[in-house]
C-alpha cells in the first residue's frame, strides 16, 4: 500500500515534509525520549533541510534528543561538495543545536567494504543489539528509479542479510555506501521526497494499481505504509 500526497511544487513539498518531521519528532520524543532519523542526499531533500533549519520549524524540535544517520553516502571525504553529510551539515545541522555526539556520519576512510561494515556495527551498537528501526527514514528517487544507493542492476539489490553495504555504481564510476532493503524496510516511517517532471515515467509505474517490480524504489516496502510526498510535475502522466 502506498500513501501519497501531491503538492504544487518542490518548495511546498519540502515545507510539508518539514511539518511532518516536526510532528513525528515530537511524538517520538514524547513516547521514547528520542527521535532517530536517517537522511538522504539530493536536491529535494536539501530544500527540505533548509526549510527545517528556519526558526519557524527548528524552534519546535528538541534537537538534543534527535539522532542522525544517513541512508546512503557517496564515497568521498565528508568535506567534499558531493558528500551527503556535508549537504546536511551546511543546510541544517550547523544551524540547529544538535549535539555532535548525536550525528553519525558514514565512515569514508579506507576501503568502502570496511567502511560499510563499520557503519553497520555502529548502527547495531546504537540500537543496543535490537534490530535497527528508524523513526523517520528519508529517501529520494532518481529518474532511473534508484533510491538510497540502490541502483538498477547492482548486486546490493539481492542483499538480504547485511544492513549496510558498499556498492559500485558503474554509471558513475564510484563506490557508494548504502542501507539495504532489510534495514530500510524496518523503519517505522519511510518518507520519499520526489519532485520534477523527469520522475514522472517512473512514478507512473510505481503508482499503477498492479505495478510490476521494475525499479529499485519498488523494493521499499515497510510494514507501515511509506509516505510519498511528490509535486504535481512528478505525477503529470
Automatic annotation (TrEMBL):
<dbReference type="GO" id="GO:0017057">
    <property type="term" value="F:6-phosphogluconolactonase activity"/>
</dbReference>
<dbReference type="InterPro" id="IPR005900">
    <property type="entry name" value="6-phosphogluconolactonase_DevB"/>
</dbReference>
<comment type="pathway">
    <text>Carbohydrate degradation; pentose phosphate pathway; D-ribulose 5-phosphate from D-glucose 6-phosphate (oxidative stage): step 2/3.</text>
</comment>
<dbReference type="InterPro" id="IPR037171">
    <property type="entry name" value="NagB/RpiA_transferase-like"/>
</dbReference>
<protein>
    <recommendedName>
        <fullName>6-phosphogluconolactonase</fullName>
        <ecNumber>3.1.1.31</ecNumber>
    </recommendedName>
</protein>
<dbReference type="InterPro" id="IPR039104">
    <property type="entry name" value="6PGL"/>
</dbReference>
<dbReference type="Pfam" id="PF01182">
    <property type="entry name" value="Glucosamine_iso"/>
</dbReference>
<keyword id="KW-0378">Hydrolase</keyword>
<comment type="function">
    <text>Hydrolysis of 6-phosphogluconolactone to 6-phosphogluconate.</text>
</comment>
<feature type="domain" description="Glucosamine/galactosamine-6-phosphate isomerase">
    <location>
        <begin position="9"/>
        <end position="224"/>
    </location>
</feature>
<dbReference type="InterPro" id="IPR006148">
    <property type="entry name" value="Glc/Gal-6P_isomerase"/>
</dbReference>
<comment type="similarity">
    <text>Belongs to the glucosamine/galactosamine-6-phosphate isomerase family. 6-phosphogluconolactonase subfamily.</text>
</comment>
Amino acid at each position: 500500500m502506498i500513501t501519497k500526497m501531491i503538492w504544487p511544487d518542490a518548495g511546498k513539498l519540502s515545507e510539508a515534509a518539514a511539518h511532518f518531521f516536526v510532528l513525528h519528532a515530537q511524538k517520538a520524543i514524547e513516547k521514547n525520549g528520542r527521535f532517530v532519523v536517517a537522511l538522504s542526499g539530493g536536491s529535494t531533500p536539501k530544500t527540505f533541510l533548509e526549510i527545517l533549519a528556519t526558526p519557524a520549524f527548528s524552534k519546535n524540535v528538541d534537537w538534543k534528543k534527535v539522532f542522525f544517520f544517513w541512508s546512503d553516502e557517496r564515497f568521498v571525504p565528508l568535506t567534499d561538495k558531493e558528500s551527503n553529510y556535508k549537504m546536511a551539515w551546511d543546510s541544517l545541522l550547523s544551524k540547529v543545536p544538535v549535539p555532535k555526539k548525536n550525528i553519525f556520519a558514514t565512515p569514508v576512510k579506507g576501503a568502502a567494504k570496511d567502511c560499510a561494515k563499520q557503519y553497520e556495527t555502529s548502527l547495531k551498537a546504537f540500537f543496543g543489539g535490537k534490530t535497527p528501526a528508524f523513526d523517520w527514514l528519508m529517501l529520494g528517487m532518481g529518474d532511473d528509479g534508484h533510491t538510497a544507493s540502490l541502483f538498477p542492476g547492482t548486486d546490493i539489490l539481492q542483499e538480504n542479510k547485511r544492513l549496510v553495504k558498499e556498492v559500485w555504481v558503474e554509471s558513475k564510476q564510484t563506490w557508494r555506501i548504502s542501507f539495504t532493503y532489510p534495514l530500510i524496510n524496518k523503519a517505522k516511517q519511510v518518507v520519499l521526497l520526489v519532485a520534477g517532471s523527469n520522475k514522472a515515467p517512473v512514478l507512473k509505474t510505481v503508482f499503477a494499481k498492479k505495478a510490476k517490480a521494475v525499479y529499485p524504489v519498488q523494493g521499499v516496502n515497510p510494514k507501515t505504509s511509506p509516505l510519498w510526498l511528490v509535486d504535481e510535475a512528478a505525477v503529470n502522466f
